[in-house]
């Protein structure tokens, strides 16, 4: 949901709502998966966050990187340059 954060300004909220509703529909069709952050995933994200103190990555970024690695995802639908720093392909520029 990293991209939904981009649309968090009040004027852009309808875009965020449409995006989230589209994601919910994709989940219902089994075309997407929602990954819940359990203790293990949080700990792994925290370890990466601490290990990469040379980067300005947020904890949410680090957890996303772990999930993407776990699922073999290489492309991120985000403007966030941190994903490129972590070795992923950023689709929005």
Question: What's the arrangement of secondary structure elements?
Answer:
Blueprint: H1 2-6, H2 13-28, H3 39-51, H4 59-71, E1 75-76, H5 82-85, E2 89-90
Parallel strand pairs: 1-2
Features:
single chain, 93 residues, mainly alpha, two-stranded parallel sheet, 2 strands, 55% helix
Describe what you observe in this structure.
55% of the residues lie in helices and 4% in strands. It is mainly α and 93 residues long. It has 2 domains: 1-34; 36-93, no CATH class. It has helices at 2-6, 13-28, 39-51, 59-71, 82-85; strands at 75-76, 89-90. Strand 1, helix 5 and strand 2 (89-90) form a beta-alpha-beta unit. Helix 3 (39-51) crosses helix 4. The model has no long low-confidence stretch (mean pLDDT 93).
Concise synopsis of the structure shown:
The protein is mainly alpha-helical and 93 residues long. It contains 5 helices and 2 strands, in the order ααααβαβ.
Number of E-state strands: 2
> Which H/E pattern describes the elements?
HHHHEHE
- Shape descriptor: globular
What is the distance, rounded to the nearest whole angstrom, between the alpha carbons of the first and last residues? 17 Å
Strand order of the largest sheet: 1-2
Q: Provide the β-strand percentage band.
A: under 5%
Q: Percent of residues in helical segments?
A: 40-55%
Sheet bearing the most strands, described? 2 strands, parallel
Give the helix tally. 5
The value of Rg in angstroms is: 14 Å
By secondary-structure content and strand pairing, the structural class works out as mainly alpha
Mean pLDDT: 93
* Total discrete domains: 2
Report low-confidence residues grouped into runs of 5 or more: none
